[in-house]
Amino acid sequence: MPDDRPDLVEALHASGLVQRTVTDHSDAPLTDREAAPLGSIVTLGGAVTVGGVDFGLIAGPCAVESYEQMSASASLVKAGGGVALRGGAFKPRSSPYSFQGLKDEGLRILSKIGAESGLPVVTEVVDAATVELVAEHADVLQIGTRNAQNFTLLQAVGEIGKPVVLKRGFGCTVGEWLQAAEYVLAAGNPDVVLCERGIRSFEPATRFTLDLSAVAVVKHLSHLPVIVDPSHGTGHRHLVKPLALAAAAVGADGLLVDIHPEPTAALCDGKQALDRDSWLDLTGTLSGVLASLGRNLTVPAAEPVGAGA
Ligand code: PEP
Ligand code: MN
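Above: the input record for the complex with manganese (II) ion. Below: its predicted structure, written as tokens.
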């Protein structure tokens, strides 16, 4: 709608035929905060919410490696108060000689563990041709940084009707990231969670440069929930906790964290994965930070030694 015709907007609403109007001064009208000034809440797996007062903690290994590894990971997620389990079955690796993921077998493991644990499962979909297959096994579809501007893929996940975690392209501006989200919403899927995971800069001390200012910028510009991935953003285990706490403080709606029952044996990104102790240390501190911010993170009592993991 043109924003200089309030009379027209009023008439459309009075007709009873129009529920919502969006002004066209924005490049991304569907993701613009004006479209939902109070902020959107996205439900994962029909059960848990990200956005609003609840802080969504999603965790798991970079890659699905085996049933046992995912089962142990699900126990860790629950012990730390996580709401969903992540794990890649299709891995977009920089080198063709690196572990590429278990693919279909990884999806089967993921959905089995999801059913057994009750945790919604989040996994990456790397091309439009496999969107249906991945959506049959996963509750949430992740678009990785390397595919953040694969517009055919964005349209395909927009049509499939499952929640999407949309990572920021490591070379994308905030505006380009929001327009990528706009593709998903324009295709009919309102359930998008944005994920800041670091951008490329001149700084080699961290794997990428986690742009926490983008969280505040996006919260101002858009109604979509924003989570932060401090694992891929930093590439180093010891940096995950400080950046995770900073993400919560800057207003993120959740985290996507790499954890692994045995990080030194991980087939992918072990250096940035938290083990059980560092994960529980993070979530314990995080729950205090969130409480002071008036947000919720429920941390269940620690499991008995030997259970799960
Ligand atoms: C991942 O989360 O497993 C991943 C590959 O992340 P990114 O796309 O941010 O590199
Ligand atoms: Mn990874």
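Notes for the reader.
Residues 229 and 256 are 5 Å apart (CA to CA).
Residues 31-292 form a domain with the TIM Barrel fold (CATH 3.20.20.70).
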